[in-house]
Amino acid sequence: MHLTLPVLVTSLSLLAAAHRPVVPIEERSTSSAAHSFPEKHDSLVTSQGLNTPEAIAAAILANRPGLKAALAAGKALPRVRNPKAEAVAKRATGARWDFVNQKIRGVNLGGFLVLEPWITPSLFNAVNNNAAVDEWTYTQILGRREATSRLKQHWNTWITQSDINAIAAAGLNHVRIPIGYWAFDISAGEPYVQGQYPYLLQTIQWCKAAGIRVIVDIHGGPGSQNGFDNSGRRGNIGWHTQQSNVQRTKAVLQTLSAEFEKATYNGVVTALQYLNEPAGFYSPDVVKVYKNALYDAYGVVHYPTSSTPSQMALSIHDAFQPLSSWQGYMPPPNFQSVSLDTHIYTVFTTDSIALDPAQRIQAICNMRSSLATSQKNLYTIVGEWSTAPNDCATSLNGRGIGSRYDGSFPGSTRQGSCTGHTGPTRGLYSSYKTYLRKYWEAQVTVYEQSTSGYVMWAWKTESADDWSWQAGLAGGWIPRDPTQRMYANPCS
Predict the structure, then answer these.
(1) Is it the case that residue 169 has pLDDT exceeding 60?
(2) What's the rounded Cα separation, in Å, for the pair 142 and 193?
(3) What average pLDDT does range 132-148 have in this prediction?
(4) Can you state the angle between helices 53-61 and 65-72, rounded to 10 degrees?
(5) In whole angstroms, what is the distance from residue 127 CA to residue 123 CA?
(6) What rounded mean pLDDT belongs to the chain?
(7) N or C, which terminus of the chain has less Cβ within 10 Å?
(8) Considering only CA atoms, which of 69, 90, 65 is closest in space to residue 80?
(9) CB 326 within 8 Å of CB 19
(10) What is the DSSP string of 166-200?
(11) Among positive and negative, which fits the CA dihedral 449, 105, 302, 112?
(12) What angle do CA 176, 178, 182 make, to 5 degrees?
């Protein structure tokens, strides 16, 4: 596919994409008619050299008239010695968050402004239609008026000021808030409803009052960037196939960047994520289009309103590519305040679901080196992970799709019963809760030692308590102080 982006951005980005082959995490399963959409992916493993000031400036200032004028006046020309030789420590310290000396400890506000059937199954069950499998079909089946009514009730109650205060009381310092493109832009034929944006702004003000920082994440892009239900529409992966999809995503980022540069927010938004989990495992074209678009995204986030750089960071997901494939990408000093978001789950493949408890913890410990190496390249954040060691949560793999762990997922081999291994805390086995604590400790220890920090998925769920930080606090497998440890060295 040919993209009609500015010539310099296009040529530089395509050159970068040509430097490395795309290495998929796993093969995409297409054999089962019952599972014709992409599987979610684990991250058990989880460039470009722009060598002149002119190239950098052209790449990030393309199509920005005010910035081009500043460049012409000599105000925006970076001074470059040797970008490839610069380490992450050379990045400017003016960011809204000190990614080197402060650890991010946070939770995702999942299931709030982007629906996920496994987080809030009651919403989908109330539709009384098995065809409701994502937000697209939910709103399509209910119609705009009824969907808007039900969603407003959900938005008003799922995340409240009490939740934000509880997050602060739990010793956390960040939330990541997913939102879909449709909150800002609905084109002809798209059945989504709007109204999410005021709730995002309200929640961020609550965070500011509570001393919590925020990462805002564009969780779903037009056409779907991964075919997951959490992108808004389950099934086809089409974001990368139309230039209009890329431009619409950029427009959402522009709205967010301009808004959160306002003084009223007092710098509470530390980063904007351009796009959650683009499916690099699906096609090399996804990675090519995505990396190309990130240069525009960098300019949007760092120059939202003028030629004076913003201190917000640009968060970029690893697109399910090995962390090593991002080595040398957007190097300092030309690029500042860029963070790499990686998601670590060990439940979405046949091999990972078969790990025994000790092997699962060891798998996390084995990531220390690659994470630490990545941190020296780009500020690395484990932006999604879970204490759950299985995929037993109902609808986790998609509404109507079973679990690998109990063998109800198409083509899977049964590992055991899901009874006592997910659901409300009262039904969890005592031994399972003990393991949740060990697994939680192993992950937060590794992520804090090797990266800029972590953001767990998620703060709350309706019934899958092993995925919930809130339930973990009440159930005792997550401590009130996130720096507290019961096990001296989980990786020994």
Answers:
(1) yes
(2) 11
(3) 98
(4) 160
(5) 7
(6) 86
(7) C
(8) 90
(9) no
(10) HHHHTT--EEEEEEEGGGT---TT------HHHHH
(11) positive
(12) 155
Distances (CA, A) of 218 to 76, 255, 317, 335: 28, 12, 11, 21
Would you tell me the crossing angle of helices 430-450 and 357-365 to the nearest 10 degrees?
10
Residue 288 in tokens: 């090519």
- Taking the mean position of all CA atoms in its chain, how far away is CA 135? 18
Cis peptide before 117 (omega within 30 of 0): no
Scanning 392-468, the segments in alpha helix (DSSP H) are 430-450
Distance CA 78, CA 2 (A): 30
- Which residues are designated catalytic? 277, 384
Distance of CA 443 to the CA centre of its chain: 17
Please tell me the total number of residues recorded for the chain in this structure. 492
Cis check for the bond before 458: say yes or no (omega within 30 of 0).
Answer: yes
Chain centroid to Cα 19, Å, comes to 25
CA 342 to chain centre: 8
- For residue 136, what are its two tokens? 């697209």
**What is the CB-side half-sphere exposure of residue 268 using CA atoms within 13 A?**
23
Is residue 106 a contact partner of residue 173, using CB atoms and an 8 Å limit?
A: yes
Tokens representing residue 184 in the block = 């800002």
pLDDT tier at 307, thresholds 50, 70, 90: confident
Q: Tell me the average pLDDT across 125-131.
A: 98
- The tokens for 293 are 């678009």
Q: Specify the DSSP element, H or E, that contains 220.
A: strand 213-220
Q: What is the 8-class DSSP label of residue 137?
A: H
Whole-number Å distance between alpha carbons of 350 and 166: 36
